[in-house]
Structure formats: structure tokens, C-alpha cells
Write a structure and sequence with these properties.
2 copies of one chain form a homodimer. With 414 residues, the first copy, chain A, is an alpha/beta fold. Chain A folds into 3 domains: 8-80, Arc Repressor Mutant, subunit A; 84-200 and 382-411, 2-Layer Sandwich (Nucleotidyltransferase, domain 5); 212-371, ATPase, nucleotide binding domain (Nucleotidyltransferase, domain 5, 2-Layer Sandwich), CATH 3.30.420. The first copy, chain A, is 40% helix and 19% strand. Chain A is built from 14 helices and 15 strands. The first copy, chain A, has helices at residues 8-26, 31-38, 42-54, 123-140, 144-147, 179-187, 196-207, 267-270, 272-279, 294-306, 310-333, 348-359, 380-398, 404-407, and strands at 29-30, 58-60, 77-80, 86-93, 96-103, 108-115, 148-155, 158-160, 165-168, 190-195, 216-221, 225-231, 234-235, 338-341, 373-376. In chain A, strands 6-5-4-7-10 form a 5-stranded mixed sheet, sandwiched between helices. In chain A, helix 12 (348-359) links the parallel strand 14 and strand 15 (373-376). In chain A, helix 11 crosses helix 12 (348-359). Chain A starts with 7 loop residues before the first helix and ends in a 7-residue tail after the last helix. Chains A and B meet through helix 1 and helix 11 of A and helix 1 and helix 11 of B. Chain B binds a DNA duplex (30 and 30 nucleotides) through residues 5-9, 11-12, 15, 30-32, 40-47, 49-50, 69-76.
DNA sequence: CCTCTTTATTTCGAGGCTCGAAAAAAATAG
DNA sequence: CTATTTTTTTCGAGCCTCGAAATAAAGAGG
């Protein structure tokens, strides 16, 4: 039995999370608002907010919007205390590392973007660079080091959430890099490492909850092809790895050579290197390019738009590959809204028709056939925000253990 | 926020479930045993068991194994009270309906198997037959009608768990059959309708927990091809339909005609009708046979074993289709143990080599490559047991609301 | 300016729950 | 018949949520 035994304090923990979630979603809320949002009784909200204020997690903001000029005792607005904690995020992508410090309200404190030749970088090079960047940010912002409470990392590649390890990545030759362990030891906080696509899904859920609520998929079309999936309101994680490797579903048995070493993966037809390989007239078994610059990719796209030729055919192949993957995905989980993210979303016009044709009629027995797709050509802001939300939600779930918080900020290591 | 607000009684509900789950797994347990198994304190177990006994859900079984001849106060064995509830299961398959009455301990009370020409049966014909069978069983066992508390139905086809509806099925022309609503109205109990493959997965989890615990897939190879999936110890359900339609993942774009009306589904290569179609030298766009009898399928299998020809080639194609689906599935969820169930499992020797070849190296980045597959040629006992466990676990989750039970058995309708 | 009304928040008691410690039960050992 | 051992129940402490009543803090109105 996986089932855990329930204790009375679990109830408080869960309801505290509800209160914090409400506050995170709306910034300024009176206790009455919280009652309305959560469904908890006024007495319970009072008890919980009193404790949160005493622990410094929440502040009363008297100057805030006082719903003024109404009769009766005025509501007093509550807000998360931005200074109670600092979190750090790390985005690691091809030739790029981006670290940011956020406060507990999710506001940027400091950041650094650094270009790194990741393809030639060892695991040590990468961790060294990341630590340098983080050290610099923490040093520049006095007090932030002492308040650092969590780090979230989104990486291009396959990760293992449980051990916070990057198992494999196209951006560096080294495998099984235990980023979590290393950063955790150095900064004395817990670390989450996940695929960048999971982070994108997390971000979409927060920035556009109307479209991305319970069930949806975010597909990153870039150097590689990945997916972040939400099902029943929960992130879908693989058994071991943290991401659903959409790009490595099988499109054509014994087909084109994929960067992962196998043949026929969707990625081998739909990623930027696959499109350029086909456009250049190379054999589909030719070794994939390690790095494709945006300029040449866009040039090919422009040529595809201007005339019907090898370029346009390559994009159509890509659309078919993605569509084929979606058809299989939808067979397994039923159709869900799709967010296309990254450079590939910028050329959606070139792949849409073929993609839709293959997907159409996904549910042969007559389920809703309409496929909704939205495009987000720039993946970086989403990855960043996803990392941030991951860390903050982690805090919201940890700060629960009442009384725990008082000690936590002192437990730093550096 | 999907999050529900927690109340103090939820704690008791959860812990009651733990106690019942322990009892369901071991039949005879003393309170001390339950303490050991659940981790609850002795006082809590005492409180919970006292209530369960008062409500008639659990019995003391003094005669039971008294761990005799030891010093100290003897343990008194507890056991589920078989008479507190009756449940009914319905398996609906091609030309077959099988209804069974079980007691609360999962022992068969009565059953009937009836051959029905389902292909020519309307929704009304089917429900009428099922109700007749259930009525007969309930009438034959005095008292059982008054104790009937749940019905579980496993059907070949696509189902919607939420509305307990069969959306589409290959065994009958009618669609959107609301079995749940109909049976629920007639018998006054709640009804679960799910794909037969989900039931198989549920059964495997209980009959062989050592091999099928947290993550595994049960694939039914029969007239159609379906899958029941467990991930992280929970049944995996689609967004709308209750099953993961493995058989309708895309194997070959614009490929062979599938019974679902689309082209290129795995099923169009690996189901019995697909194999016979190919063996007979028919075009792969030929209309699928509605019904394939076991004898001719086995004859083809025997011929495939005895000589290398069209038969063997057809099975190899089937193995490739299944392997291709597994490769894609494993990309999404990481490799899991597989149970092959049904007639197709009886010819595993003919498909294994091709299946494994395509799946091999599923995790390009070096995850555990070994693929474990076990075969269960007879699917019916598993479907039956899965239905039973579904109903019983439902009761274990409903009998929680303390005091609820006293009224429930009277709330019958018939 | 003082009282009335209205709305927000806190306080208080009832009724749950789990748990550890102590008490009670029910056997064997001698 | 008493001592010992083991199981089970009882009791009090310390959680939790909730509804009702009490308290706070405004505007409205004479």
C-alpha cells in the first residue's frame, strides 16, 4: 500500500497551503476574501493567518486597497512577505546559463545571463559556472544569501526528479550530472531539477489558468523536442525521468537518425537540425548538427514561405511527425489543449496544415475533434517563470510545518 | 485550484481505509497485526476497529487462528464480514455476458455466463439481458438483493468513467450506452463502468503485487487491443475516456484500415482480425472482420509455427506494431513491466523477437533496457477479478463516512 | 459629538482525531 | 493461587474545524 497514515496536523498543513495559494494568486486579499476563495470558515482563516503573520510569512498591508468608503469595519489586506525567503532559478540550455534571484513574492532581485560553450563543457565546468553566477548574485544582494531557501533548475535534457540529476542532455557530453546534490551541498537548500518543458507547463498554468488548467500539454520545438504535461491538474512525470519524452516517440520504424542515437524518433524529423538536414539535401542518416543558429533556421523558414521547394517539404515533414506523435498521445490520454513553444512555434504556419491533417479524427469513436493550439515562440520567459513557481510552491508546501520556518533561514550553509 | 479543503474527519476516513485495506490483504488480522501493518497507534486501531465492528463491517473471529499456546492475552482475529454487502460484476465482451455476485470478502455467491449475439444487439438488448441475468442471480440468492451495494462493469470498448457510459464498442453497433445510469436507476446502487483492460490491471495488482505494484501496463491482445496502466500506484485514466487506447496509437501514417475507421493504428496490424486479414492475402484496406473465432486464429498460429510463410510474416508484423507502440509509450512514461493478456499472449512466441527488436534501446540515454513481459492467455478471470476489486475498493472508500452504512443497504430500489 | 448600523475579525465552546501512558483483560508459568 | 506476559481499552493532552457570540472599527444620521 502506498497509502500514508493521516494525522490531525495534516489537516492544518493542507488548509495552510490553501490560504497561501489564494494569496499567491491574488497578491492582496483580506481575510474575508480568503474565506470566500478557500471555503474555509472565518474562524479557521483567522487562526491560520494569525500564525502565518506571527511566523513572518504574511504581512498586513494597512496602506493597501482598503475597499475604502464603505460602511462597516474595513477589511485589512494581507500579502505575502517578500523578504521571508529568497529563491534561485537556473536555466541551462545550449550555450546558455541564466540564473535569477527572486523574493518570496516572485519579484526578480537580481540575475545574470552568461553564454557558455556547453557542448565543450564538462559537468564540472557547468556546475562551476552556475555556482559562480549564484555566488555573484548572492554577494551582490546583501541578506539574500541568508534567506536563500530553494533552487529550481530547468535543463534541456532528461532528468530524474527524485535524485535531482540530469541523466542526459544534448547540450553537454557528460551524463548523470547530479546538479541537485552539488548545489544542495554548497548552498544548504533543497534543489529541484527538471526538464525545461515541465517548467514551461508549470508557467503556463499560472500565467493563463483559463486555457491551461487541468489537462494540457506544452511542447517545446527547439533544438530538441520535449513535452511538459499536466493531467488532472497535476504535473505528469515519468516513472523515472521527470519528462514525457514526446520527441522520442517513434514516428518511422528504422527511420531518420536521431540525436539520441536511435532511429525514427519524432525529433529526427521535426527538430531544427532535422529540418536543416533535410533542406540541405543530406541523407537522413547523416549525423545531426550539434548546434543550429537561429539565423540560418529563420532563413530556411523564409525560403519555405516564399517558394515551394525542399524547404517547404522539410517543414511539412516536421508537421507530419508532430501530428503523428499527437495522434498517438491523444489515443493514450484523450485530446488536450496544446501549447507550442520555442522557435518551432514561430514557424507554425509552415507545419500547421500537415499537423492537423494527421491528427484529425483522433478519437475515431467521435470524441471532440477540435484541436486547440497556441504558440509561444520565446520559450525562455516561460522556463524562467516555471522555475520560479516550482520553487515558490515548494516553499508554500514546506513552510507548512508550523514553527519550522523560524529556524529554516538560519540553516544556510555557504 | 483543484485543492480540496481538509476537515478533521478526513483523517479518520483515511485511516479507516488503511485498516480495511490491511484486512482485505490478509483476511485474518489481530489488532496488533493491524498496528504493525498500518503504523497507526494501538489506541487508534482500537477506536477504528470498535467502530467497524459496531457497524457490522468487521467481525471478531474467535475460533480463528489464535496464535495459541503463547503466554499473555491471546490476540483476537478480525475479519471482514462477508455478509455486510453484496456486489455484482458484469463482463461484457464479444458475444458474451458474464455476471457474478460476490460477498464483501470477494467470494463468489452466484454467477451466470450467457452467450449473446452482441454484434446484432442494440443497447436495449444488452441492458435487458444484463438486467435479466442480475435479477435471476439476486432472486436465486435470498437476501442478496437487499445487500447489493455496488456494480462494476468491464466492457470491451471505450468508456467514460465519469458518466459510467460506454462511448463506443466493437461488439455492438450502438454508441453512448449509459450502462451506469440504467443499472443505477434499476438497482439503486452506484455503478462503475470501465474498459476491460483497466480491470485487468486492477486484478494483476492484487493477484501479483510483487510484480505489479507501482508502475506497470497490462495490454490486452484480442479482438481489439487495449491497455490498462498503473502509474505511481494509481490507475491511469484518460482525460475523458477511462482507458489508454494503446491499440489506436499511430503505427503507420495512412496505413492499414482499422476497425475504428481510421488508418494505421497498431490494432490494424496486431489484432486477430488484422493478422487473419494479412494471412488471407487480403488488401490491408479491406474491411476488418467483425468476429474472429479462436479456432481459426489458432490454426493460423500453428501454421506460422510450422513453416515460414505468410502466417509467420503476419505475426511478425504484429510484433513490430506492438513493439513500435511500446517504444513510444516508454518514451512518454519510461519503461515499465508489461503483462500481455488474452489470445495474443498465447502466440507470444511468434511475435516476441520482432517486438523486442523494436523496443530495444528504448531509453537512448542509457536507462535500464531490460523489458520484462509476462503472458496471461486467458483474460476472463482477470477481468472478473478486476471488476470485483473495483467494487470492493469502492465500498471500502464509501463505508468510511461513519454511520453511513447503517442506512445504505436499505436504500435499494428494485 | 454621540449613537446606530454595518461589516470584519477574533474568541469561545463543542465535537472530532491521534497519540502516549496507564489501566484492564486474559491467557500461561510456576 | 499468584506472578508474568501480551493484547486491548481507557483516559487525558494537544491538535484541528466550525458555528455562534463577542469585539473592533468604520460610516450614517440626528
Amino acid at each position: 500500500m502506498v497509502d500514508e497514515i493521516a494525522r490531525p496536523d495534516d489537516v492544518r498543513r493542507q488548509n495552510r497551503r490553501l490560504v497561501l495559494a489564494a494569496l499567491r494568486g491574488h497578491d492582496l486579499l483580506s481575510r474575508t476574501d480568503i474565506v470566500a476563495q478557500t471555503g474555509l470558515s472565518a474562524s479557521t482563516v483567522s487562526a491560520i493567518t494569525t500564525a502565518l503573520i506571527a511566523e513572518g510569512i504574511v504581512n498586513e498591508s494597512r496602506d493597501g486597497d482598503v475597499t475604502a468608503n464603505r460602511r462597516g469595519r474595513p477589511q485589512v489586506a494581507l500579502t505575502l512577505n517578500p523578504e521571508i525567503a529568497t529563491i534561485a532559478t537556473v536555466e541551462l540550455a545550449l550555450n546558455l546559463a541564466h540564473t535569477v534571484l527572486f523574493d518570496y513574492k516572485g519579484q526578480v532581485i537580481a540575475q545574470e545571463i552568461r553564454r557558455i560553450p556547453t557542448l565543450d563543457a564538462s559537468a564540472g565546468d557547468l556546475t562551476r559556472a552556475i555556482c559562480e553566477m549564484l555566488d555573484g548574485l548572492l554577494a551582490a544582494m546583501p541578506g539574500s544569501a541568508g534567506r536563500l531557501m530553494h533552487i529550481s533548475m530547468g535543463v534541456q535534457g532528461v532528468t530524474d526528479a527524485a535524485s535531482a540529476t540530469m541523466l542526459w542532455s544534448p547540450i553537454t557530453p557528460d551524463i548523470n550530472v547530479a546538479f541537485g546534490e552539488i548545489l544542495s551541498a554548497r548552498y544548504g537548500v533543497s534543489v529541484a531539477v527538471a526538464n525545461d518543458c515541465s517548467m514551461i507547463a508549470e508557467a503556463l498554468r499560472w500565467t493563463d489558468p483559463e486555457h491551461y488548467a487541468e489537462d494540457f500539454a506544452a511542447i517545446l520545438l527547439s533544438h530538441g523536442i520535449g513535452m511538459g504535461l499536466y493531467l488532472k491538474g497535476k504535473p505528469f512525470l515519468g516513472v523515472q525521468s521527470s519528462g514525457a519524452e514526446f520527441g522520442h516517440m517513434l514516428h518511422v520504424p528504422n527511420g531518420a537518425l536521431c540525436r539520441c542515437g536511435r532511429h525514427g524518433c519524432i525529433e529526427a524529423y521535426a527538430s531544427d537540425y532535422a529540418i536543416l538536414r533535410r533542406t540541405a539535401g543530406e541523407d537522413e542518416q547523416a549525423q545531426p548538427a550539434q548546434d543550429v543558429d537561429a539565423a540560418s533556421f529563420n532563413a530556411v523558414a523564409d525560403r519555405a514561405r516564399s517558394r515551394d521547394g525542399a524547404e517547404r517539404a522539410a517543414f511539412r515533414k516536421a508537421g507530419q511527425a508532430i501530428g503523428s506523435g499527437l495522434r498517438s498521445l491523444f489515443s493514450l490520454i484523450d485530446p488536450v489543449p496544446i501549447a507550442l513553444v520555442g522557435p518551432g512555434a514561430g514557424v507554425f504556419d509552415l507545419i500547421e496544415a500537415d499537423l492537423r491533417e494527421i491528427v484529425s479524427g483522433t478519437t475515431g469513436w467521435g470524441g471532440k475533434p477540435d484541436l486547440t493550439i497556441r504558440c509561444y515562440p520565446d520559450e525562455h520567459p516561460l522556463i524562467l517563470q516555471g522555475c520560479m513557481m516550482t520553487s515558490l510552491l515548494h516553499l508554500d508546501t514546506q513552510l507548512f510545518a508550523p514553527g519550522d520556518l523560524r529556524e529554516a533561514p538560519l540553516r544556510r550553509a555557504i
